[in-house]
Fold N-acetyltransferase domain-containing protein.
Amino acid sequence: MTVIGLRPATQADSEFCFRLHKAALGEYVAAIWGWDEQDQRGHHARVFDPGNTRIVTVDGVDAGMLSVDYRPTEIYLGRIEIDPAYQGRGIGTHLITALLDEARRRGQDLLLDVLTVNHRAHALYRRLGLEDVARHGDGDIKIRMRYTPPPR
């Protein structure tokens, strides 16, 4: 039985998260903007926030990252990235299902954005009950998705 856990990120996790981002989403970033290592490292240095990041562990091994923003009226899933070696094992489904359960308990919507070129993630989110609500970004490269829990 696989044990999926979350631990708080620290500044020491920065390089792991950068390498993870490159492995998990590099092809999608490259398809839209092109991958420039220096630009990507600079962007990562500006946006990496260990205080709002959790490291996903699988059987005690670091295997991904999760960033969730709890807003007054909604939960925003900012990032979920799973190392390709661990993809397809239900880890993302487990994590997102837990967020959907939390959204239901709190009576709040769950929102996220997915790149239009990331068809696999988009299909997962739709399968789990999120709906497309808008496209945005330069050239509408992102799909905003939302789950609204049923009224209590």
Summary: The CA atoms of residues 75 and 110 lie 5 Å apart.
